[in-house]
């Protein structure tokens, strides 16, 4: 009941202010807002349900519930099907709130009588629609167990505000996920899926500072495919792309998961090896060189073989990363000059 409107409003505004705070979890936000709704409306349970599909919904999936304990991982999500409860779904799809004073006699909720209302002692329901882009996306369902209840206009409006908060939070979460994807793409090489040069420069600075503090060695291997132009010229650019992808996946198999492989550009790559000194980095580079030289890259009937020239250097933690990069580049140049298919220490 909305007896003390100003106190209720203040509490709700505080919870709503977390709508755009993506540092908190989406689930925690839903729990907070429905807990608030249960207290204010003095109902026995509030839950949030989302449609599986907005154009032709078949199911409603329970994604938050005041009955759930906040620290338990909820995995057993209840599901309501359109097939079983068509009148309820049809009513929700109109977008109108369902204020079912007596849930057993209201035509929109009577379908729940034997399977749900009676077994759980639910007598009254107030359901408000969560919209997304103006289309029903889910519901906030408030249930009471104290007999039929005449829902007041203010109570319906209050429940609708809760549903609107959920709508906005869902949108914010989706925008945030999109932003994350864009950020990931900005640091990724589209062809190989490896990190790109922009990522490398930032990552290397962070690793230099981390390794300086921990007084640990950091090394890198620059890898350049030999005579790659000839592969393009012989088989075409498309096959050259396939070779680059095969190269990347072969390297990933040889390297440790904590090593970071980036594409500097063209057929030039760099692997950053944390906690590794120059001797060990040399062995890693040799392993890479041998694995790549044994790789048979298939394209139709063709089996393409490659070799690589590698420059190994231990990163000088006292100098800017670009200096160590130059050193590795020089080592690659030397490896090429000495006949390719080899590893040179810089
Ligand atoms: N297919 C394909 N080719 C690329 C890509 N990026 C750069 N290249 C080609 O890679 C080739 C690099 O040639 P070069 O720099 O002459 O080197 P190389 O032929 O490997 O010779 P060495 O390094 O001296 O052994 C050029 O022909 C570029 O066009 C790409 O994304 N896909």
From TrEMBL:
It is an enzyme of class 2 (transferase). Residues 216-346 form the GGDEF domain. Coiled coil: none annotated. PANTHER family: DIGUANYLATE CYCLASE DGCM-RELATED, REGULATORY COMPONENTS OF SENSORY TRANSDUCTION SYSTEM. Its EC number is 2.7.7.65. Pfam families: GAF, GGDEF. InterPro entries: Diguanylate_Cyclase, GAF, GAF-like_dom_sf, GGDEF_dom, Nucleotide_cyclase, Rev_trsase/Diguanyl_cyclase. PROSITE patterns: GGDEF. This is diguanylate cyclase. It catalyses: 2 GTP = 3',3'-c-di-GMP + 2 diphosphate.
